[in-house]
Input
Amino acid sequence: MEFRSKGLPMTRQGLADALDRLGLAAGQAAALWAVFEVETAGLTQGFGFRPDRRPHILFERHKFKKFTDGRFNQSHPALSGRPGGYGSLNDQYPKLEAALDLCVDHGLGLEPALKSASWGIGQVMGFNHEAAGYASAETMVTDMVQSEDAQLMAMVGFMLDARLDAPLRNHQWRPFARGYNGSGYERNRYHLKLEAQYARFSSGSMPNLEVRTAQAALLLLGFAPGKIDGVLGPRTGQALTGFQIAHQINPDGQLTDQTYLRLTQIAFT
Output
């Protein structure tokens, strides 16, 4: 299965559609950005794709154990076993691909492995594909490989299925955290992190989607803009300057119309 695509970042229409489905007005987007921020902390740097244009994933070996009835526990303990043992971010796709190979070799198809990973900006588990609106994990992943908009829609579908839209709208972070992150939410202080990030975003520190798109393009083209946060800070400015020098554009470190157009053309077409 191919996991690499263009890595298209979130669009204004995609965000608007997500807010509409959740019953949030455009001015209430801070609640959704808080979830993005907390869910992707330490994993995706604020973006649903890795620099190699594959969606961010986390492979869960205890889920692979469940979906294969533990048949690989002894032969492949790094892939199938107790919770934990995730390894580094660089380990995730090798683990997934090894799990896929095992499943195919043993006539199990792709589903057990794809169900055992969390995907994209919302880190939606593959086994939640029906809640996300898909008949199979494979069809969900196929869409999520294409764009952050698809990742966002899967995330929204899961929230709606779990009836988390009302807690999100009402900023009830404890019940939202319990439903989205599971029973360990309190140990991980997930609800407190959501509350803190919502306070930050609702104070006016909202991401600029054009800057965020430019940052995503810079990341995918190898110019290291730092966190994909929609803020034109020093690292993003330095990355813009590097891109401008490489493409014979006035190197002012600013996101001019010329720079934005050239960036997006090269990165996403």
User: Anything to note?
Assistant: The CA atoms of residues 181 and 187 lie 11 Å apart. The mean pLDDT is 93.
